[in-house]
Give the backbone structure.
Amino acid sequence: MLQSGVPTPPESPPHDVLLQAAIEASQAAGSLLLRYAATGFQIEYKNPINLVTDADRAAEQCVIDRLKARFPDHHFLAEERGRDEEGSSPYRWIIDPLDGTTNFAHGYPAYCVSIGLEYEGRCIMGVVFDPSRNELFTAMEHRGACVNGRPIHVSNTQALDGSLLVTGFAYDIRETKRNNLDHFVKFALKAQGLRRTGSAALDLCYVAAGRFDGFWEVRLSPWDMAAGSVIAREAGGRLTDFSGKDLSIYGQELVASNGRIHEAMLTLLNQAPHQT
Ligand code: IPD
Ligand code: CA
Ligand code: CA
């Protein structure tokens, strides 16, 4: 506080401090998820195929408690508890405490904690921790992306024919015609291989690491994309919506690729529905 009584604006924390805080929070929440996986958890249903567990809620509380303790004036957007936007901070943490809940609930070890950070509406940092494989993906704007501290880069695959692609399906797949099945059929006939892992945040990290060449999905939420989009972009990837415009994490459509196969993916996504 100044002597005049005018409050001083909070200082911007150094990027390394922000990154370290997110890493620690993701690892604490990841350990919590492994404990729940080992000892048991309660399942509730948001709809017949959309689950949430007490592990999701505990991991979210763990991440928010840790980040709030260090950055009390920052904003938060978290999957299970929504927005917390008091004050006028330029920072907003975007958290998916358990991306891959269906996998988690079935004991299939493909899930993660995802923590992204926006500054003035721009995603500048991403941390994704996969506790089952002990893989920590990190990226900061203009500083590249890493897994467990080692730099990662997208693949060099040149064509769909030689590509391993990944996608996912939203929880309203039974209710909507825009259910991604048509795109799935088309890519299955064009790509070398096609996967559905059940964790969008990890799918983005795997594009970043060159394990997948491309990823598309419809009706994703900001917490599915915030962290992974920074990681994929910093690893040299291209991220757009289906029309080729720069990705907005609030826009639901996502195409992420190594860049080389991007136009081919967009062309296929914009074709008329598949005729059988
Ligand atoms: C889901 C996963 C999945 C994707 C769904 C997401 P959740 O998130 O990321 O891969 O296909 O659209 O909702 O519910 O496990 O956090
Ligand atoms: Ca998610
Ligand atoms: Ca989730």
The two ends are 69 Å apart (CA to CA). Residues 96, 99, 200, 223-224 surround calcium ion (ligand 2) (CB under 6 Å).
